[in-house]
Amino acid sequence: MYSKGTDGEVMDVFKRINEIVEKTNIDDFRIDSYSGANLLITGSFDFAYYHEVEVEFHEVMYLSLPVLFSNPLFRLASDDEIEVVRKFIAVSDRHTVFCIEAESDASFEKIPFYVVAESVRLREGTVYYYEREHLEENERIADWVKRKS
Fold first, then answer.
1. Integer Cα distance of 73 and 11 in angstroms
2. What is the C-alpha separation between 116 and 119, in angstroms, rounded?
3. Is the dihedral of CA 98, 102, 104, 106 positive or negative?
4. Residue 124: phi, psi to the nearest 5?
5. Longest Cα pair distance anywhere in the chain, in angstroms?
6. How far apart are CA 119 and CA 141, in angstroms?
7. Burial annotation 51-85 (CB, 10 A radius, 16+ → b, else e)
8. Distance CA 78, CA 75 (A)
């Protein structure tokens, strides 16, 4: 599921992510990679073996987010929150201020964190951290796993 940043499309993406968090045991999230432009967040019940959700923000220009967080609620930032973020950066019309309310290792209370980016994309499916045969639809092995020849 992909969103170019319009409110309706973003809400569809966030509605699905929030539904996954609410109705499954996927409650731990982490920053998997940040290239300077794209931010990949993965979600899992057990990061030792796999992840099941990927949330990728494109053309990121600002983020305030811990590397590990739990039980997130994804949403658009309110007007007041956008004004707070504007104290740190100039937010252009092509960027959206996304809010992730989540627990961190510092607090079991949900705290708002922010990502300013052009768009967001959701990918669902299991990504295994080990070699495995007989993959089903929406399953793959992580790119970094060393494969037997």
1. 12
2. 9
3. positive
4. -110, 145
5. 55
6. 26
7. bbbbbbbbebbebebbeebbebebbebeeeebeeb
8. 9
Query: Which residue shows structure tokens 């201020």?
Result: 97
Q: Which residues in the chain belong to E strands, given as ranges? A: 2-3, 28-34, 39-44, 50-58, 62-64, 68-76, 96-104, 107-117, 119-128, 139-141
Phi then psi for residue 20, to 5 deg, are: -60, -45
Q: Tens digits of per-residue pLDDT, 6-61?
A: 566 778 889 999 999 999 999 999 999 999 899 999 999 999 999 999 999 999 99
- At 64-79, the pLDDT tens digits run 999 999 999 999 999 9
SS3 label, residue 138 = coil
Structure tokens at 75: 């949403």
3-class secondary-structure state, position 82: helix
3-state SS assignment for residue 97: strand
Residue 62 one-letter amino acid: Y
- Which residue type, as a one-letter code, is found at position 5? G
